[in-house]
Amino acid sequence: MIDIHSHILPGVDDGASSMKESLHMLSMARRQGITDVFATSHYSKAFPNRDPEKLRRIRDELMSRANRPVKGPDGKIKRRRPIRIWTGQEIFYSNSVIRLLEEGKLLTLADSNYVLVEFMPSVPYSEICTAVRNLSRAGYTPVVAHAERYRCLRKGKRVEELIDLEALIQMNYRSVSGGWHDATARWCKDNLKKRNIHFMGTDMHNIGSRMPDTKEAMSWMRKHLDSTYLRQITRENALRITENKIIK
Ligand SMILES: [Fe+2]
Fold it and tell me: Which sequence ranges form a coiled-coil region, renumbered to this chain (predicted)?
């Protein structure tokens, strides 16, 4: 699996608080079958990360530490599958975002044309549409982060309309958990069945309340989605971002 949404870099936002916690989060993710993680640290008022080189340096350091050989209990070097960490940011959309992207002050996903964008949960639908149109016009493909969070998208065929505007849709694994009494989980399952989702992400922040947790969602998705679509949203579409290829 490839995780397109995470706050894995230490000390830059409300995600991992230390290198030790980052490494712990990565090993939890690895145990769930994640091979690649996009480090999408926040760009927002609260976390104005506008220094891509700093984020790249921290990513390099974390990736090298995560892939250091480790000794097993028998004293022998254990072979682990390497984990790749791609650069990126979760960008809180505002009018200045396109200018900052063009000035190279914000990171796209793996230096591609794809941009992970987020909004306030109470955002009006028209604002998401404007953001999608503006980003597309500027040559970027917007990926709407944790789409289940925006109340305006619960109405009618708004998700389909955003896709028609050439937005791609990301959902958090954890939001799929929960029974039919849970309106968010219900909305998630419905949109997964309609194939409106392009990427699943953990949005992991720490090793506690917001840890990487794919299990419950994966077990539901394995039962209810066909395996080709499941592969696309958990791996192949994200892989296409790393190659800057078009996703349909
Ligand atoms: Fe996030």
Answer: none
